[in-house]
Amino acid sequence: MSKIELNGALFSKRLRIVYDAWNNAQKDDDYSSISEVDALLLLSGDHAAEDEPIRKGTAFQTWLLGFEFPSTFLLFQKNQLSILCSASKAKILSQLKNADSPVPIEFFVQAKAKEPPTDALPRFLEAYTSFDRVATLTKEQQSGKLMDDWNQAVNEAAKKPTLVDMAPAVASFLAAKDEEELKCVRTAANMTSTLLAHYIAPKLETILDREAKISHEAFATQIEARIGYGEGDKAKGPDMKVWSKGRGLNDVDWESTEFCYPPIIQSPSTSSGYDLSPTAESSQDDISHKGVLLVSVGMRYKSYCANLGRSFIVDPSKEQESIYALLVSLQSEILSRMKEGAISKELYQFALSYVREKKPELESHFVKNIGHGMGMEFRDASYLLSPKNSRKLRTNMVYNLVLGFTGLEEDGKKYALQLVDTVLVGVDKSTCLTTGVKSIKDTLFFLNQDEREGQSSKAPAKKLPAAKNGANGNASPVKNKTAGGKVLRNKTRSAAQEELVQSMAAKIADHQRELHARLHQEGLARFSEGGGGIGGKEGKGWKRFQSYKGEAGLPREVENLRIFVDRKAQTVILPVYGFAVPFHINTIKNVSKNDEGEFTYLRVNFQTPGQLAGRKEDTPFEDPDATFIRSITYRSADAHRFDTISKQITDLKKEVNKREQQKKEMADVIEQDTLVEIKGRRPTKLPEVFVRPALDGKRLPGEVEIHQNGLRYQSPMGSQKIDILFSNVKHLFFQPCDHELLVIIHVHLKAPIMIGKKKAHDVQFYREASDVQFDETGNRKRKYRYGDEDELELEQQERKRRQMLNKEFKMFSEKIAEAATASTGEPLEVDIPFRELSFEGVPFRTNVRLQPTTECLVHLSDPPFLVVTLSDIEIASLERVQFGLKQFDMVLIFKDFTKPPLHINSIPSAQLDDVKNWLDSVDIPLSEGPVNLNWGPIMKTINEDPYEFFQQGGWSFLGGAGAGEESDASDASDTESEFEIEEDESESSESSEEESDYYDGSDASDDEGSGSDFGSDESEGDDWDELERKAAKADKKRAEAGRGNESDDSDRPKKSSKPKPKGKANGKR
């Protein structure tokens, strides 16, 4: 125990809180219980049993001293603090004497067991009995030898003070958390959320999907085992596969981690019925696979608690869906009202009135209180959110917000619903510290999904009967389960696969219709106020320029009345009728020279309105109706002089254009504020990293430092550095070196900065993962070891090195995010690319791997980097989506219509479904088309009048969702005839692609389960003449029945008559 170090500064700070509250108790109702007492007595007996909840006295002592000290008494007097304890504890607590305590501290040290007793206890009793009124925790029962001696001494005392219960005041001391306490609470909440999202929910889905037989108690035991179990050699540590998925849980002190109570799992098969209290237990009954399942789990980190509870409903009724939706909306409303000064009973009354207004029949089923204060104590009854409690909420208090209904009934069976979260009270509103698995799509599981989809979606309805038949051909419907909108595994795999394709396509189609409708409404709302558009001319006006302020400014050379190019004034002086007339270079469009006989003609062309000059077509003029000179022509016999003048004017024009272009490029470059360096301690550093864009000079690794308001990269040379302020950071990425050569921390900026002579939107810090600096060929081990052992060892070392690199860079990126959040007040989170969702494409000139993250689409491995913020995207257009083509293109149109669309070309067609699923999952509207669009004129038209564009249908000209109704007809015709492919591709496809089209076509028809006339003939091995005859017969039949939508098909066999035999041969092979 002698190694224990107490935090003296924290002790004195909290002791001062106690004395300040005590001295001003009459002014604050929260401390009224100690307003008229002479002393405060805190008794502590032997250590409580493991299964007992933390007592308020133990929590108060731990909060004040930093540790629990059993058999220790504290007597708070107005002029001093008296502590009765053993000699060993006094030695530790003596550290507090050096602290800046508001009152002096006196120790009453008791003798050791075998030594003669001291007068410590009688003197402490004398001090205690000298007071008339003493506040203590009257309801707490302590035990132990010291408590027995104390109780005997008090009973024998002649005078006994009047005792007052100080529990309400102690609760107020502990209620508002400081930064140290909040850090522990946030960690506990993060662990609880991670456990729910990455273990409990997926495991529960698996149990329901496979209809596994497992008891509630067994599942609860499995959950508890995630923090480790066993002792000694058989001890098993925490399950890092789960915890590594949570943010900032790599440095957790697992010794200080425990569950507040055994996890509670309840289902319809629970014999004791549903119970929403934390004292409920997981029964030994097997988990039911239908109905309502309740999960409650609470974790404690360094004595501070966090708790959450969720309801999962399998095959919910409409009523159950609406009740759960009511709980979610009620929580959101209450969070906005839980703030500084709010009164507990008013919050409960609001919740009750909200339920009464929305669903009056549920009022009698609503919980009797909606939560309680929480900290070291799991349940602080002093801050109960009940209809009788008048206590006010204060900033930084932590509550366990419990919303639920009990005694509900569905089909004659009782059930309950709950939504429980740990919340932090703020000045204006409260925020949930526990998150995840809360929305309807995450908590509702549906049986008989095929029937639901048949009602809600037209597209897949006709295919559902095939999905209902089992693998053995029986007509009994297959039981399907979905969770979070995902179809889980079926009992028959073939049915599951077919159902998966159909249901996903249907869901994407439905969701895309919603997204397109919302996009259209938002577009109308966004541009309705502004009326017309920007026409691409925003900020583009008549720019005045002046060559000279007066005649005195003209150069001497004009006296000769000859053409003169004044580079300094950026002016060309031309003689016109005996006058030297200056023309600024911006008024000149170009100059041309040609020779005719012995004379040379020099023609100077000027900028004038109405010229079809491409980009310069929309050049503004001060007065477009004025009279303009289109050109001036000069004749001279001196060809050499005109050559020189022509070259001078052209060079000056190029120079000015280049300067304007550079000025335009640098327009958005910002001048950053000064970096405030950390003082008093060394900054957190990441050594041995390279930076991109690279600094001038030799390529050497430097180090990145985290300072008060930004980052600094310091080169080893010392003279060069890069400062990045947190206020200018838009996104922060960490890309691990799994399957990559580099481990990367990438910073994407809000506005570009200058690095060297170039502007940069992105700054990247990286280290090479491959250990190239070690020469392994001369290793001594290789002399004595042969075979694969050495290679295996090297591979293991490489793996470990990569893991260490990932851990080091991830921890540093999280520290950057924490520092940025603390500096700016805006949350900055580390974004990690999802490699499993990646796809290949060409955003610039080379084919690269594009990886989605939570907020962006990125390519970080090589420059030029690509970072596209998903929230900036208006719509995604998938182009060249044709049956048989190997690749397609994606165009991302931004909400800022002045920005040019981003083209990502040559994405493999095999990844089309993956790209569509990803775009749909991040709520980006998408469209499909067979050809590339010319987006330059399209965006120009939109910019001229965006409101008019949306009034005329907006993005509907793209054809809506990829799985929408417009594309259904073309999809159907694709499967009817292979000849249609040839005309669709006649302009774009090459002969090399045509050879593989037929193979792809047969695959597609097999997958869709539809065989066309020509496809079935092909399997019979008909020759070309037979196919030609059948095609002509089919054309004739269609012509007699009416051409309709398939009128174009009649020409196709003739157009593709030559290459078909070759295609058939390839198809058979």
Verbal overview:
It is built from 28 helices and 39 strands. With 1069 residues, the chain is of the alpha+beta class. It folds into five domains: 8-174, Creatine Amidinohydrolase, Chain A, domain 1, CATH 3.40.350.10; 179-445, Creatine Amidinohydrolase, CATH 3.90.230.10; 555-590 and 599-612 and 628-660, PH-domain like (Roll), CATH 2.30.29; 684-772 and 790-824, PH-domain like; 839-955, Pleckstrin-homology domain (PH domain)/Phosphotyrosine-binding domain (PTB) (PH-domain like, Roll). Its main location: nucleus. This is FACT complex subunit. Keywords: Chromosome, Coiled coil, DNA damage, DNA repair, DNA replication, Nucleus, Transcription, Transcription regulation. Residues 1027-1054 have a biased composition (Basic and acidic residues).
Which keywords apply here?
Creatine Amidinohydrolase, eight-stranded mixed beta sheet, 34% helix, 39 strands, disordered C terminus, globular, 5 domains, PH-domain like, alpha+beta, 1069 residues, Creatine Amidinohydrolase, Chain A, domain 1
The domain count comes to 5
* Envelope shape: globular
Alpha-beta classification: alpha+beta
CATH class of the largest domain: Alpha Beta
Radius of gyration: 39 Å
Question: Could you give the order of strands across the largest sheet?
Answer: 27-26-25-24-30-29-28-31
What is the rounded distance between the termini?
Answer: 81 Å
Please count the beta strands (DSSP E, at least 2 residues each).
39
Q: Strand share of the residues?
A: 15-25%
CATH superfamily of the largest domain: Creatinase/methionine aminopeptidase superfamily
Portion of residues within helices: 25-40%
CATH topology of the largest domain: Creatine Amidinohydrolase
Query: Which whole number gives the mean pLDDT?
Result: 81
Number of helices: 28
Largest sheet: 8 strands, mixed
Low-confidence parts, pLDDT < 50 over ≥5 residues? 449-491, 531-539, 613-617, 772-776, 962-1020, 1043-1069
CATH architectural group of the largest domain:
Alpha-Beta Complex
